[in-house]
Amino acid sequence: MTDRVHQITIYDRTAGCACRPGEQRGMMVLHAVLYGIRKEYGDRVSISYFTLDRNKDEFEKNSEIKSLIDEKGLEILPVTIVNGKVCKTGENPTLAELRELLES
Predict the structure, then answer these.
(1) What CATH number is given to the structural domain containing 78?
(2) Radius of gyration of the chain (CA)
(3) Is 81 helix (H, G, I), strand (E, B) or coil?
């Protein structure tokens, strides 16, 4: 592991809803993945999570996200960016995927 601070940013449609069990379960899995990364990397990782319903301004500020949505529609979400590079679209990353991305 390196000493640099890694940046993980996830852009998603919504933070999930208790009324939709599939969404809620997906959020619980993502929370566990991000918790695991934070536990392993501590202050060597910074994690941002933005949702279209709560953080629309963050989507508009990021030209790459804006372009992806314009080209592919909302189905492209969630989008995971690690250290400034789009690494995964359409589904959240796994713990193993994030570890690999942070080590590369």
Answers:
(1) 3.40.30.10
(2) 14
(3) strand
